[in-house]
UniProtKB/TrEMBL annotation:
This is Tripartite motif-containing protein 2. GO terms for molecular function: ubiquitin protein ligase activity; zinc ion binding. It comes from the Eukaryota. It comes from Mytilus coruscus (Sea mussel). Residues 123-144 are annotated as: Disordered.
Length: 451
């Protein structure tokens, strides 16, 4: 009998340690992750409100009455500032088991629940358990439903786990063209119409290629180009390496249109107003240890500076080493800062809308390495992540939608990207293979991935 009692005690301890405690730990992790996601959404909404407040203050200080009228009508971007769901937490409960059965002596656990209910207590709404979410209704049916009855939080939690086809994307993106460039390493690419792109790499020139890889034109430069853009599908404007100047090339002639002493110009883009935006990284100071920060400058075609973007309203530097820039359809300025490893989105008033840091699983991914950026016709932001072989797709506010292209789709070390008017994605790969066996860097073209 004593031996049998010791055996029962041993089995009971094993049941308590390996079964019930394990289930409790799993419940705790699941509940904590759901609360963290909810907290993240609340912080995003709070940040959006702060941005709108700061933007309104700047508009009041600097705008004319007519501008204020237009700003009140079109200026602020408010998506859905109402948080539609809150939750009640139910602790796990213990149900006593039948003591006549050894395996049920300690009983079983009922799972914890996070129940979502509307803030407005007067509104009738059916309570839904998050752990038992209903299936998503078809797109056509969801459009007909009242948006107030949809769950903002549940849709946000689904982003990371929903297959790409359910997000409005093809499961198998198509590479419609692939060709070698004249360079062993590619750094920049810009679309110029008629299935043609300008590319530059580790050489003192810029080359015009068609979609088959045929070389159409070569423009020689004094130094390795750090950035360029194409305006009106034919005029090439580029930063001339470490010379501190921006030049325009028309046919065989070149003309300096902008000079900024003490800084290297990097990427350039043309704004909706017709002005140019250029990333500038100051030279390292020789007589001081002061850490100088980069800036983005907007100038007109005569080289006159219209504005400098370098500090926020609290006089804190916005950038450290801004190397890639583009302007979105809503006039937001999107900048890839390689030093701090962030994509920084500013609205038209210079207020920081978001700082995107990759949202990567650091156990399986390399550190976020943002490089080239561009936007599509919908205002989404596409960002090359070189070390992880990703093309991130973000919404206008700089929040991740999905990784639209990965190594599975055939991209390797994407350094620069551009999106043409048909929303095809042109990817310039760095090609970091050892120099002794290095081949030509490739350009790959992917069709529009949206359904």
């Amino acid at each position: 009998m004593k031996k049998q009692g010791e055996l029962c005690k041993k089995n009971a301890n094993a049941l308590l340690k390996e079964n019930l405690k394990k289930k409790l730990n799993e419940m705790e992790k699941t509940d904590a992750s759901q609360v963290e996601e909810y907290d993240k959404i609340l912080k995003e909404k709070l940040n959006e409100l702060k941005v709108n407040i700061e933007t309104s203050e700047v508009a009041l200080e600097k705008s004319t009455p007519l501008d204020l009228i237009l700003f009140c009508k079109y200026g602020l971007q408010v998506s859905d500032t109402k948080i539609k769901d809150t939750f009640n937490f139910t602790n796990p409960s213990f149900k006593e088991g039948d003591v006549t059965l050894i395996e049920k002596i300690f009983g079983t656990l009922t799972p914890s629940k996070v129940e979502w209910k509307p803030f407005n207590k007067g509104r009738k709404s059916q309570t839904t358990t998050l752990m038992q979410r209903p299936k998503t209704a078809p797109v056509k049916q969801r459009k007909k439903e009242n948006l107030e009855d949809s769950s903002f939080l549940r849709q946000s939690l689904d982003i990371a786990t929903t297959p790409r086809s359910q997000k409005g994307f093809n499961d198998l993106p198509g590479c419609i063209a692939e060709f070698d460039s004249p360079y062993s390493m590619l750094f920049h690419i810009s679309y110029c119409g008629q299935d043609q792109v300008y590319v530059s790499g580790n050489g003192k020139n810029i080359t015009l290629l068609d979609i088959r890889g045929k070389k159409l034109k070569t423009i020689n430069t004094d130094r390795e180009v750090l950035g360029f853009t194409v305006v009106y599908n034919q005029i090439l404007i580029y930063s001339d390496g470490n010379a501190g100047v921006v030049e325009v090339a028309i046919d065989k002639s070149r003309k300096t249109i902008f000079t900024y002493l003490g800084a290297d110009p990097w990427d350039i883009c043309c704004s909706k107003s017709g002005n140019l935006l250029v990333c500038l990284i100051p030279y390292s100071s020789l007589d001081t240890t002061e850490d100088k920060c980069g800036l983005v400058v907007e100038f007109d075609r005569t080289g006159t500076i219209k504005r400098e973007i370098n500090y926020d309203r609290q006089k804190n530097p916005i950038y450290r080493e801004p190397k890639f820039v583009c302007e979105n359809t809503n006039k937001d300025v999107c900048v890839s800062d390689c030093s701090v490893r962030k994509l920084i989105v500013l609205n038209a008033f210079g207020i920081v809308r978001n700082r995107y840091g990759g949202q990567l699983d650091m156990k399986t991914c390399s550190p976020f390495s943002p490089r080239g950026i561009d936007t599509d016709c919908r205002g989404n932001i596409l960002l090359a992540d070189k070390d992880n072989n990703f093309i991130h797709l973000l919404n206008q506010k700089g929040h991740l939608i999905t990784n639209i292209l990965t190594v599975v789709d055939g991209i390797t070390k994407p350094w620069s990207i551009c999106v043409d008017p048909d929303d095809r994605i042109w990817v310039a790969e760095e090609n970091d293979t050892p120099q002794e066996v290095r081949t030509k860097a490739k350009v790959k073209v992917f069709n529009d991935l949206r359904l």
